[in-house]
């Protein structure tokens, strides 16, 4: 029997023209790559609730205006199938500074321009951005 897909929520936290990325250290999905804050969707949780919880747990930041942007469906190995829900959020207070709340899981957090993202990046996220995905709101 194949393992069930894992469902994760990844958060594009936008601050001016920058996005928050951190380098994962643990043996979890995306180890040793730069990724967005986020994590596993808990039973009964909305995507927005998951985003706020994971961001707080990982960075200490409070977020608002969480919007679902897109999803990806990635089979990463014979035993890992990840469905990722990508959301966008803003800082509740723009003066907040990200903290490395889980140093056993992440090297630290920093802001990066979309044109100068850190490497190595989590492969599904990298592919999505290279294909032209833009997490920033566009003026209508």
Structural description of this entry:
The chain has 140 residues and is α+β, with helices and mostly antiparallel strands. Helices cover 15% and strands 39% of the residues. The protein has helices at residues 47-59, 123-130; strands spanning 6-15, 18-24, 34-35, 38-40, 63-75, 81-91, 106-113. Strands 1, 2, 3, 4, 5, 6 and 7 form a seven-stranded mixed sheet that branches. Strand 1 (6-15) and strand 2 (18-24) form a beta hairpin. The model has no long low-confidence stretch (mean pLDDT 94).
In short, what is this structure?
This protein has 140 residues and is an alpha+beta fold. Helices cover 15% and strands 39% of the residues.
Task: Name the descriptors.
140 residues; alpha+beta; 2 helices; globular
**What is the molecular shape?**
globular
Number of helices: 2
Major sheet summary line: 7 strands, mixed
| Uncertain stretches of 5 or more adjacent residues | none
The helical percent reads 10-25%
Class of secondary structure makeup: alpha+beta
